[in-house]
Request: fold
Amino acid sequence: MIDKVAFLFAEGLKSFLRNKLTNFLCIITILINFTILGTFFIAGFNTDSLINFFRSKYTFEVFLQEKVDLDQSNAIIKQLESNPVISSIVLIDKDKSADIFLEEFGEDVVDMLGYNPLPMSLKVSLEKSNFDLNKIELLISEIEKYDFVDSIEYRGVYIDNIEDKINLFIFFFLILVIAIVFISIQMISNTVKLSMSNRSDFIEILQYNGASNMFIKIPFFIESILQSIIGSLIAFLLVNYSFIVINSYFNLNIQIDNFLWVWMIGLSLIIGIYASNKAMKRILL
Amino acid sequence: MVEFKNITYNYSSKSGIYNIDLNIQDDEFCFLVGPTGSGKSTLLKLLYFDLFPDKGKVNVLGYSSSKIKNRDIHRARKKIGVIFQDYKLLKQRTVYENIALPLHINGVGRKKISNLVNEALELTELSRYSKKFPNQLSGGEQQRVCIARAIVKNPDIILADEPTGNLDPTAGHRILRILEQINKEGTCVIMATHNYKLIAEKSYRVIELDQGRMVSE
Reply:
């Protein structure tokens, strides 16, 4: 059994070394496809942190009416904090509002007007883990109905737009992944077909001497596995080191998944084995 | 061992083999003779399940053409050694590697392969050519490599399709001598030929075909 396995492995390796041009072209195709795939995978991996970044910035501000005093506003905070969508509420009283005005416009509003017209407000931060824009909009419309509320300022629409664009990107990314997987399958499958037609004499001799289909297939599987591993490994190294260089050159913090190499090599192996099996099924009945 | 039951196989409306009934015993040596296109090769192809009859049934070594599944054909072929007129050798492999191929297929260990291949090389008088490549050999020598490859796995039947077709008379006689020796050791040999001179002096069973029909036995 060991001798048989060794023979088949040696056959696969010999065939791989013999068909240099077709194997080289196949490896180049896998390399290009998986470089694109790996790049988009990293982009996709970072969209999650991008969305989280935007969500962490997502707050809305509730401006209270003039008549609301500090005790009332504390009671309102307590009431709102019980809502699971809200993570924290910060009270911005009239003095703090004047400080913010001074910071932003460089003028003291009390000196300017002789009194402080700025209203008290509540800065509401939202829970990241339970983030649901619909629930937030519902909450805002409920708060708007309270008679102590003057107005509410929120930028949900913009964030919603950004998330829509990110989701569109993910959608195109998925289409691209499917296209790349399809192209890779076709390329590997055609290479195997070419390799098999080049060696039709060998296959015929094996068949006449009692070789099973699996015995004939194994060397071609080994050839495809080698193509897949080499192509995707080079693609991984290229993508990984390119992002490391980009990070250090532009001082960015693009995250690279620790298991990127597993995904890339694993996916290329699955594609390689599936594509070669598909090609052989048509030839070996 | 080999049984043809009312076999018909059509390539087209005008060529094929028709209504063949035949039995061949375990240790028999028999010739299939007839002109080119008479159906000799077709008969052999039906025996190693390269073709399947349109009508009738072929039974070989316990396998039946009507029952055998695609995935089991290789099992039957492991027990059959086939010798081709065009040798069908692997040009990029040495004589030794060509002969060892069926043993690798059967999962024989390396040491045993070496012993069996050397035995086959001796029987076919090819020992000194073991490291040569097929294109460095004459037609007769290549045919002997093909015979060595067929016998190395110790098959129950040897099917030889015009093994002397491309050879001069001396080389042809040598091939026939080797096949006779294999038969003496108990292997059934069925040899297709149109070389009547070669078999004239032999007392083996002769099955004659013409235009796809058995004309004499």
